[in-house]
Amino acid sequence: MPQPVPTSVLMDSRDVVVVGGGTAALCAAISARRKGATVTLLDQAPPDQRGGNTRHSRNLRIMHSAPSPLFPGSYDETDFHADLVKAAEGKGNEALGRILIRGSAELPDWLAAQGVVFQTIACGGLPWSRKTAFFLGGGKAMINTLYATAARLRIMVHHNCRVTTLAPDGQVSLNDENGGKRTIRARAVVVASGGYQANPVWLAERWGDDAAALVVRGTPFAAGDPLRALFDLGAASVGSPGACHLVAVDARLAEADGGIVTRVDGVELGMVIDRDGNRFEDETSITGPTRYAQWGRRVAALPGAIAHAVWDAEAIDRTPPAILEPIRADSLETLAGLLAIPVTTLAAAATASGRVNQPPFFTVPIRPGITFTCHGVRVDERARVVTPDGLPLGCLYAAGMIMAPNVIGTGYLAGAALTIGAVFGRIAGEEAANHALG
Amino acid sequence: MRLDDPHEEARRVLRLCNVCNYCNGYCEMFRAAERHRTFSDGELATLAHLCHNCRNCWQACQYAPPHPFAVNVPLVLAELRLLSQAELAWPRPLGHLGLLSLVVTLLPPLLVLLLVPIEVLFAAHAGPGAFYRVIPWSVMSLAAALPLGWSALALAVGLVRFWRAGGNSTGAEMRAAAPEAIRDAILLRNLDGGGAGCDDGNGPLSFRRKYAHHLVFAGFLLCLASTSVATVYHHLLGLEAPYPMLSLPVVLGSLGGVGLIAGSLGLLALKRGADPAPIAPAAQESGQLLLLQLLAMAASGLLLLALRDGPAMGILLALHLGTVLSFFVALPHGKFAHAPYRAAALLRAALERRNNER
């Protein structure tokens, strides 16, 4: 006879509990611990998938006044501020934005002090980037280092913990890996569990049936339970429900956690058609670093949220490398058969594009891939979660993507997510420790 | 998702690496792979030898198992290194290299026990030519020359094939790239892990493996220098071994022996307890065999030096000769072959890097 699982076991009693397992959570936990607090970190992922979406990241946006081994040029506060305001479309909180920008300048030294190694320009291999610093080996290497530092500092880390309920007085309820219900009492709680991009039920509130077509690009554990718990407590909301960052990904790689290698690129060399075989965009008009996101949004808006990129024999060799070979068809008739599209429609689209002439033809199916949601809790300048009246919600703090819309609205800025996680993670951790140690 | 054929698996993995690129700060392998859109078998062999097996990319990989993409770069490249060395060398490898090495090591002591009169073998010999009173110089030279010649042939044929399959180049390009390649080989720049140190599988990143390798390499070069100086003494100056304790051959050889022992023990210790996931078992065994051979060679040499004036000299000399012969026999098909192949791969990388910059 299996023992009945007790309804709630008191697992621990700590100064600070951190909910989440990515950059913001680790920076908060380490900062709180360095302030002298006892800290427990609760990550929903198993150990080999720890690190949230940081595992798939590579760089941080950093303000800095002069070129250095990490940066080929300078990026001052004015430049960063202009980029941030543009990305946020003016919807970011000005004071929090300034905190982010100024805090970013401290990050290379602070992270290096935690053992994190950056890739220098001298190392070779880096894309030219005036605005962002790159982790040597990428985000997972940094995450490994921060977990090792956390272990050295005797921060308790529990994986496979799904936090279900939070309370303003610091009580945290969770389901452990065996489905047992547990609670932890904390003097302060930092919620750094990201968005709900891996929760199709929640996404369906905005996206309807198409929510199921969104490919989760990052951690499959971002279900948003802690965010829901904060809303249930009356936390003020920022951003927009269901708003998210979307990217065009190869529909054949629909499993979660594909990261950056499933993106579809080079479509301006061919054409993109919807499921009925019609083009819907001048492919050559979408260029620059945001092209993946622009295509992601457009494909998400199509019927069935699917599209097909098509190249001809002459263009295919010029497309950037991809991890899967495209699907080959020796004639337009064969391609039309493969895609279940009338050949006349396909031929008309090919002719109109002017770029799809020479057989054989190649195609890749495209889905919108969801990176993160842009909907979270409002915080004040001390990273405290606040109610719509602007009052702190007990001893609850928030850092990372769960509060990112405070500074960036529903926009996107390369490398900003990690900077938000690290800057506000540090603030939340220190403030939570101060609160706990009173 | 892992493919059975190492070449196909390497193509699958490096294709993915080229899209991701996150590891290109770690070593030249990733930066060299980025210069290719497709990979011939020869190009793969070059890339495989650029990998110094530091395993940082394994720890950092967001697509490592249990991720369905199952990327394990060090493992597949280690498999390819073994495969390419076996396929390229001529004559082809002998089987059971470990057993063969043991037999060859023990053969000279057995033979001297059988063939040299006991009163000669276990007598105390002194003065110039003492060694050759137990084993004549001509026998010793022939015993060494045969396996060394065979091995040098296999290695040379393998290297030429390796170089030709790796790409095209002119003599001028090779000469221009050589200084960079020599620097990379001697400094082991690709064991720096991009400046952070390497993951030797035993905790935090460190330079332990690089330093231990430096010791082995320096020790080996010193022993080689000792032998070369002794050859000059013998043939040009007419001085016969054994040489005095403070002579150049003895000092060089002693320092080299100590370096070999310290470095080999260090590398063997680092292999113990390392995470097995990114390690090809056959490569691990081949590396261990070479380290044991180097240890045996250095230890028997130092022991011979210490006891050369006594009755054990004869049998120790035969044992030392056995360890050297065993090293020679295994040369082209064991771990030692990584040295010339890797040097060639570094030359190829330096050459392509230069061409790419132009």
Automatic annotation (TrEMBL), chain A:
What is the top-level taxon of the source organism?
Bacteria
* FAD-dependent oxidoreductase 2 FAD-binding domain segment(s): 15-416
Residue span of the signal peptide, if any? none
As recorded in UniProt, coiled-coil segments are none
> Which Gene Ontology molecular-function terms are recorded?
oxidoreductase activity
Keyword Oxidoreductase assigned? yes
Q: Pfam families given for it?
A: FAD_binding_2 (PF00890)
Q: Which cofactor does it need?
A: FAD
Which keywords label this protein?
FAD, Flavoprotein, Oxidoreductase
Q: Which InterPro entries match?
A: CobZ, FAD-dep_OxRdtase_2_FAD-bd, FAD-oxidoreductase_2, FAD/NAD-bd_sf, Succ_DH/fumarate_Rdtase_cat_sf
EC number(s) from the headed UniProt entry: 1.3.99.1
From the Swiss-Prot or TrEMBL record, give the protein name: Putative succinate dehydrogenase, putative fumarate reductase, putative FAD requiring protein
Q: From which source organism is this entry?
A: Magnetospirillum molischianum DSM 120
Source organism phylogeny: Bacteria, Pseudomonadati, Pseudomonadota, Alphaproteobacteria, Rhodospirillales
TrEMBL record, chain B:
Q: Which keywords does UniProt give here?
A: Membrane, Transmembrane, Transmembrane helix
Q: Please tell me whether the keyword Nucleotide-binding is annotated for this protein.
A: no
Q: Domain of life here?
A: Bacteria
Kindly indicate whether the keyword Repressor belongs to this entry: no
| Residues in coiled coil | none
* Segments passing through the bilayer: 97-122, 134-160, 215-236, 248-268, 289-307, 313-332
Q: What is this protein called?
A: Putative citrate utilization protein B (CitB) putative membrane protein
